[in-house]
Amino acid sequence: MGKQLDTLLKEARTFEPPPAFKRRAHVKSKAAYRDAQRRLDYWAKHARTLEWYKPWKKVLDWKPPHAKWFVGGKLNASVNCLDRHVATATRNKAALLWEGEPGDRRVFTYWELHREVNRFASALKSLGVKRGDRVAIYLPMIPEAAIAMLACARIGAPHSVVFGGFSSEALRDRINDAQAKALITADIGYRRGQRVQLKKNVDGALEKTPSIEHVIVVQRDGKPAPETRMKAGRDHWYHDVMADAATYCKPAIMDAEDTLYILYTSGTTGKPKGIVHTTGGYMTQAVATTKLVFDLKDDDVYWCMADVGWVTGHTYVVYGPLALGATVVMYEGAPDWPEKNRTWDIVERYGVTVFYTAPTAIRAFMKWGAEYPKGHDLSTLRLLGTVGEPINPEAWMWYHRYIGNKRCPIVDTWWQTETGGIMLTPLPGVTKTKPGSATVPFPGVEADLVDSDGQSVKVGGGFLVLTSPWPGMLRTIYGDDQRFKDQYWSRYPGVYFTGDGAKRDKDGYFWVLGRVDDVLNVAGHRIGTMEVESALVAHPAVAEAAVVGRPHDVKGEVVVAFAILRAGHDPSDALLAELKEHVVRKIGAIARPADVFFTADLPKTRSGKIMRRLLRDIATGRALGDVTTLADPSVVASLKQRYEETEE
Ligand code: ATP
Ligand code: MG
């Protein structure tokens, strides 16, 4: 692999957790890792921090690739997130601090949230939604999204949250795949000043979704959006069904292995898969990781920027932090809208202490200049997190310096929709960090790097695998157990194949490179797209870059790069030549891009991941594949057109 990463692995500075942080941290010593060697006992210890109706008989029943965790145990996720806090002084604590994009604000104490969830659970029941029925949720980031999820959990109806930015077709396919009986939506949502027409999208989707019997519609602004049409008998206003709903709804006593939810992956690698998560194991991993990775204490104000449409929003906005009785900030809009500084306004205004976001957001902040958050008091922050993609060391350092003021540890957390919770991460206060590395497995998690024969690679590059089951693991793909086996368990029997490539350094630290299908083969050399991208964004003119391979008769593949320039830099032939040379300097002649294409935008999923599959289609002149999961589908069309024009 390329020189740049190798140098980085050798020279990477390590960051010791700051002493002030260490004193306060939940985990104070490496003993946490040692305890976890008794893996099942360790997970059982965390499971006991939840409230169970009935204890489990067996921690793990493992018949590869099918696992059952906490066999025979009974619990309810909403009881763990609400009822048990309402029984203590936490009842009066803010559970949700919500802010809408237009600036409206709402606060729910645990008591209030408990009431709302119970009322909505009662309402769903009166509409005939029963335990085991699937309920689709298509909402903006408003409190009702969390309320709806928890209400479903309360009555034992698995939810399937579909990101509010998805199109009619994407929604329709997900509803049909899960055969959802009810759908919860809103008339509109706000995104970058636009009114997102959720109900209109729903109406389009519902022309071909025979399973849906009821649609419940939240009025985003407390009055019906004028363009909303309601279909009699099928559509109900949320406030109407809530009006006389009982304020207590008896929770369903769920088996540890009953499905809590289905969530479709973002589809960067093909047809979305309905990932199935169950109750006991998932909740165990959610609380264990939220507690130890984010180090949450009673006085924290915690903000995870993810949308509830993604798994991060499930585990680290709703289930993990609420199960711990934490105060959670929830924001509807884009991080830089309507003011560039909205994110830091929120941090300052609520006194956010723990902040969790994605590298794509960090790079967007960097674009506005090195000292961008200037003028904001970010001194309440004490811990920063990142997830979603490998973070390039420059972005890590910027985050460390300008947001964390060099005193906040950064947790770079690697995990997937499939894993349910964090898998590779430092423990703040204990694990030394290295910019760009998700470091080591969370205690109780067993990960390895293997070559194509399945032999462990101690130092070097390989495929990232998980060698033993973990509580939050997916149980299957909804309706397609064969695809579950083929996709994750067929490559190495009994071992979970993550689909990600990684390197391991001499300290045993993991450096995730991205999906293995994102590795190029240039004249027999394997080059990670992420390495070339890191090299490009290390150049002062480049804000963001995406790299794909284009087939080549002789070399197999050549490197094609798409680059977004920073403010103050303009495309030119000189810059183009300079960037090619820059990559050569950083990695080697082998990685020299055949093409660097300047662009204002890159096709990204709504979770902020670059859709390399589409860039590959553009670079190779193929017809475009499915674009429905894109944040802004028009980006690819215009990119394709401009790319073809420059080619001529
Ligand atoms: P699909 O599986 O449908 O293609 P996806 O993999 O993008 O979608 P997610 O489950 O949200 O959907 O993303 C998980 C992937 O994100 C990981 O497999 C990895 O490639 C990447 N990732 C997440 N966190 C990190 C991290 N901290 N460092 C490096 N890569 C990360
Ligand atoms: Mg994936």
CATH-defined fold name of the largest domain: Rossmann fold
What structural class results from the helix and strand content? alpha/beta
Assess the beta-strand content as a share of residues.
Answer: 15-25%
CATH superfamily of the largest domain: ANL, N-terminal domain
Domain unit count: 2
Mean pLDDT equals: 91
Number of helices: 20
CATH level-1 class of the largest domain = Alpha Beta
Low-confidence stretches: none
Q: Care to describe what's here?
A:
The chain is α/β, with parallel strands linked by helices. It folds into two domains: 2-485, ANL, N-terminal domain (Rossmann fold, 3-Layer(aba) Sandwich), CATH 3.40.50; 519-647, ANL, C-terminal domain (GMP Synthetase, Chain A, domain 3), CATH 3.30.300.30. Helix content is 31%, strand content 22%. It has 20 helices and 30 strands. The chain has an eight-stranded mixed β-sheet with strand order 12-11-8-6-7-14-15-23, with helices on both faces. A seven-stranded mixed β-sheet has the order 5-4-17-16-18-19-20, with helices on both faces. Strands 21-22-24-25 form a four-stranded antiparallel β-sheet. A hairpin with a 5-residue loop joins strand 4 and strand 5 (105-109). Helix 4 (39-47) crosses helix 11 (280-293), helix 5 runs parallel beside helix 12 (311-323) and helix 14 crosses helix 15. Adenosine-5'-triphosphate binds at residues 265-269, 311, 387-390, 412-414, 416-417, 438, 498, 500, 512, 514-515, 607, 609.
